[in-house]
Amino acid sequence: RIGQIITIKAKVNRAFKTSMEVGIKVTVQDVLTNVEKIVSVAYATYVAKPVGAGKIELEPVKLLSREDHLEHTLAIERRRIRLGYEQVFQNLMQESNKEGDYCNSFEEEDAVSTDLTHVQSIELVQPPHANHHGNTFGGQIMAWMETVASISASRLCRSYPVLKSVNMFKFWGPSIVGDRLVFNAIVNNTFQNSVEVGVRVEAYNCEEWIKGQARHINSAFLIFNTVNDKGELLTFPRIKP
C-alpha cells in the first residue's frame, strides 16, 4: 500500500545450459511498525538473447551458501514440474477435441454462464511499455492481464476480487512497439472460495490487424478470492461452461 517500503531481491538459482531460473522475493516494510512481511515469491525463466543464430550457453552458478544449494536443487524440480504441466495440458487438449461438446451435458441449478464473465481489452504498445530490446515489458503485459482478469472475476462475484497467484504465465512469442494486443479473459471454474480466470493475449502489427492474423504471445491462469468487511472469504457461485 501507499507509504510502505517494498524490497525486491532477485538472484539466479540455477543455469540449465541455455536457460536460467531467477528467484524473486518481494517483502514489504511498514514504516510505523517496522514490521517486515513477505508479499510474494516468484520464479522466472530466462534465456540469453543471442547475437547471431546460435544459442548462448551459460556458465554454472557458483553456490556460496546453504540456501544457494537448496534453491539450486529445488530449481531442477520446479523445471521438471513445469515441463510436466505442459505435457499434461497438451494431452488434455487433445482428449477434449475428441470428446465433443461438454456444454450440452452440463446441468446445475443457479449456475452462472461463463459468457457473462468474458471480457476483452485492446492495448497499443507504446515506447514506455517496451524494454531496451524493443519488446513489450513482461510486467506490463502481466499488469494488463491482471486488469482484464479482475474485471472478469468481478462479474461473477459482484465485488472486488483479490489476486492470489498467477500460474503458468508464459511467453509464446514477443510483441513490440506499435503492436495491438488483444486480451481475452473468462472464468474457467470456481472452487468455493477461489476462482480461476484464464487470459489469452494475441498480438497484431498493422498488416496483421488488417488481415486478421493474430500471434498468440501469452497465456496465464489467475487465481482470485474475495473477502467481506470482516476479512472473511466469500463463496463463489458455480459456473456453467
TrEMBL record:
GO molecular function: acetyl-CoA hydrolase activity; carboxylic ester hydrolase activity
Reaction equation(s) it catalyzes: butanoyl-CoA + H2O = butanoate + CoA + H(+)
InterPro entries xrefs: Cytosol_ACT, HOTDOG_ACOT, HotDog_dom_sf, Thioestr_dom
Subcellular location field: Cytoplasm
One Gene Ontology cellular component annotation held by this UniProt entry: cytosol
GO BP field: acetyl-CoA metabolic process; fatty acid metabolic process
A Pfam family this chain is assigned to: 4HBT
The protein's name in its UniProt record: ACO12 thioesterase
PANTHER family recorded: ACETYL-COENZYME A THIOESTERASE, ACYL COENZYME A THIOESTER HYDROLASE
Pathway(s) annotated for this protein in UniProt: Lipid metabolism; fatty acid metabolism
Alphabetical list of SUPFAM superfamilies matching this protein: Thioesterase/thiol ester dehydrase-isomerase
Residue span(s) of domain HotDog ACOT-type: 1-52, 115-230
Keywords, in A-Z order: Cytoplasm, Fatty acid metabolism, Hydrolase, Lipid metabolism, Repeat, Serine esterase
